[in-house]
Amino acid sequence: MLSILAVDDSPSMRKMVSFTLTSAGYHVVEAVDGQDALEKAETHPVSLVLADQNMPRLDGIGLTRRLRAHPRYKGTPILILTTESSDQMKQAGRAAGATGWLVKPFDPVRLIEVIQKVIR
Amino acid sequence: MADTHQESAGADFDLTQFYQIFFEEAAENLDQMEQMLLNLDLEAANDEELNGIFRCAHSIKGGAATFGFADVAELTHQMESLLDRLRRHELRLIAPMVDVLLESADASRSLLARHQAGGQGEAISTHDLVRSISELASGQAPAMAPQAVVPAPQPAFAPAPVAAPAVVPEVGADGMRALEIHIGPLEQLAQADAIKELFRDIPGLGQIEDLPGEVADMRRFAVRTASSNDDLLDLFAFHVAKDKVSILAAGACPAPAPAAPVAQSPALDAARPYGFFAGAPGVPVDEVAVAALAAAAAPAQRTAAARAAPEAKGASQASMESSTIRVAVNKVDQLINLVGELVITQAMLAQNSRGLDAGVHQQLLAGLADLDRNTRDLQESVMSIRMIPMSIVFNRFPRMLRDLAAKLGKKVDFITHGEATELDKSLVEKITDPLTHLVRNSLDHGIELPEDRLAVGKPEHGSLTLSASHQGGSIVIEVRDDGKGMSREKILKKARERGLDVSDTMPDSEVWQLIFAPGFSTADVVTDVSGRGVGMDVVKRNITSLGGSVEIDSAEGYGMRVSVRLPLTLAIMDGMSVGVGDEVYILPLSSVVESFQVNEGDVNTVTQGSQLVKVREEYMPVMSLERIFQVPRPGGAGSSGNNIMVVVEADGSRVAVLVDELLGQHQVVVKNLETNYRKVPNVSGATILGDGTVALILDTGALVRRARH
Questions:
Q1: Chain B residues within an 8 Å CB radius of A115
Q2: Where would I find the Response regulatory domain in this sequence (chain A) (predicted)?
Q3: A108 lies in which domain range?
Q4: Would you call B2 and A35 a contact, using CB atoms and an 8 Å cutoff?
Q5: What is the CA radius of gyration of chain A?
Q6: Predicted ipTM beyond 0.90
């Protein structure tokens, strides 16, 4: 079973994302923010990272940067969830090494579609 | 709401199951936001605080949008925009911003409450709030006149432009606009039917009709609505992607074009719901690009490391969150109930084993001793689950005082001590209203107007202190102010007017207690805050019904202190067990004053068989439990063994309860009789004794009231 690391500081978002992914047959590891995600990524190898952008301690783009520096996560798909897909955000996401972005609010079906396009 | 989605994904994405957790989370975020807003220093708001407030609004917005609460999402989006400009230092923080944000938090709360109740009732209008915020966010002073004709400017950080051509539709006289909405290209045209359902489900949204003329994989509708394009798009977003919706003014629109190029137009890229970065790691294209990008990402690490310091502050909060779990209160109550049963069983075992020979049953008795200790520990731990800090109550006051002080034109510093003091959840809920009343009273009647304070040499700002502390088995909550205090003469005068029995030589403590008499108010002016004469008696009654007491201390000109003493929990009570015939009754120990053996000569029978007993030159009514509960006597009615009086006090009066014997004092686990059986007069609850029999816990307040009639 493929594992996905779902990172969001909002418990309801996390539950919802987690539920959506689990329903689609993925194993989900949850993290409450970027810092937590780094620790989880170390102990639980995952095939994809789905991270909220705005979080305390370490945001999604910061998380992406650090994960890319990790040998195991050099090529792992990392998707950033944001509320606005401004060019500025996209530039920053791209520079950090994110694979793509997804705009909140997202629809569960779309989320699965996007993930299926990149997960291996 | 997403039938078509369910089919295509083959899974049940019912979001309603996450509503509750979202509501709780949003409520927490709103509370936190309010707290932080109240603590903001206008002159020197630090980034950490502004970021924190921003994040609260941001979280609520994200959740509200995802769960389809468009009104909340819209309002919090505006708040977020304003906060975003503030934290970027593009705007200077001014008091009206804090006001409007607090108001918006209140509005969000009420909107959420409405959603939580299933959308029942009228939704409050957030139109003015949204406009005030966006005016502030754009750097303008808020419009004083609400009927300003100038259209509201867009907030500086408005959402990314949507895929709608810039055609300003004609607005009709009724405020309705006629629009044409094109949706597509869609793989399943039925998806667009959800849009029609929206118009049916949301009253006031407007009318929708199908437009003739099929275009491949497109649907077209004629719509009449008063909602803005943004609002419509936000609503539609839950059913179809924004980039598949075009909103056009009716008549002004071109012939329906095949929509494929629209979706790919680079100008509209911003509104796409997702995308991949060409050549980024993870995009399944070519491996070479991946390596190049990964290398490019390396220098960025320094930036991340440099930011680690400010991030550390949030660490404790985050770790707090992950180390707590949310449990439904009824689960905890069930646990407490079970432990109560266990305590009773343990007590029965202890009682039954008392006669056993310690030599023969050494191991059994050692085991029972362990059981005794472990049960006690378990009970204590379980009770502590229900304990919540007083800060839950205290936190609501800064906001209330701020609003109230502004209304009354007073200046006050609010100080709290002992917020961490813990109290049973059910008590916390019940103490909130009486405390609110006391705090209001202090501000309204105690603390003087700034000019009056200055005139008597006090600092302009009054101080109001709320403190909580544990004292023995009770919690003591104090409301203290440095206002004008109470006037002994005024209270005595008022008491005489009301026909109360008072004398000029009464000690202060008794004089202060007079204000708890029903309908008593010494306020010269009845304000809409307090002073209507309902209140202090209700406060006292509520606190007494919780097994607590109230004391007042006052010095005219210097202030006043009200101390509320409460038991730590309602689930366990110290009781005195008394025997009448074969029955056992429990009297709350807190209301027992004294007990004595009665001599026949001390009891006088007055009219209709009611009796009085003379205790130290004072007559008090006698309540015979035997008569009240009609306790059967094996030896017939004449063989009364009644010869002990227990004096109990409630509501400021005393009665002597006539019983056969005193059995002892112990802690009892209180069981609610109303939920398990039905309400019984003169009884407040029941408990199970060590031998397994049920004993009724007497309601001393009811006994006292009974004696009065």
A1: none
A2: 3-119
A3: 3-118
A4: no
A5: 13
A6: no
